[in-house]
Design goal:
The modification O-UMP-tyrosine is found at residue 51. This protein is an alpha+beta fold. It is 21% helix and 37% strand. It has helices at 13-23, 70-81, and strands at 2-8, 29-35, 42-46, 49-53, 56-65, 89-95. A hairpin with a 2-residue loop joins strand 3 and strand 4 (49-53). It has one domain (2-111): Alpha-Beta Plaits. The radius of gyration is 17 Å and the shape is elongated. It binds adenosine-5'-triphosphate.
Length: 112
């Protein structure tokens, strides 16, 4: 089982969510976050002076999928979230040791 965390542009949330639902991703947690990558925020002019906005609003989508689903999940996110412009985001994949569905006690792949 793998955790797939994707940081994406906020306006892409619906597209990515719909694309993931279509391939059978059954659950996820979504948070409003702020961050920067190499993009390092952007400069804004305010009353003639330039200010750097360090953190830009992003959406973090957090889902755990079976090992068989990882590649398809990642490629679906990439396809749906990409604009080709700076700040499109990043995907982090990591191992998950255990999942427990609280209501039934089911574990691991059965609890996804
Ligand atoms: N190394 C990192 N660790 C944790 N979060 C990161 C990391 N890099 C990027 N992020 C998160 O992903 C968001 C989007 O990253 P961003 O697309 O700006 O990365 P990038 O590497 O600069 O790529 P690009 O050149 O496409 O802008 C950031 O705002 C931040 O929230």
């Amino acid at each position: 089982m793998k955790r797939v965390e994707a940081v994406i542009k906020p306006f892409k949330l619906e597209d990515v969510k719909d694309a993931l639902a279509e391939i059978g991703v059954t659950g996820m947690t979504v948070s409003e976050v702020k961050g920067y990558g190499r993009q390092k925020g952007h400069s804004e002019l305010y009353r003639g002076a330039e200010y750097v906005v360090d953190f830009l609003p992003k959406i973090k989508m957090d889902m755990v999928v079976s090992d068989e689903m990882v590649d398809q999940t990642v490629s679906t996110i990439v396809e749906a979230a990409r604009t080709g412009k700076i700040g499109d985001g990043k995907i982090f994949v990591s191992d998950v040791d255990k999942i427990i569905r609280i209501r039934t006690g089911e574990e691991d792949n059965e609890a996804i």
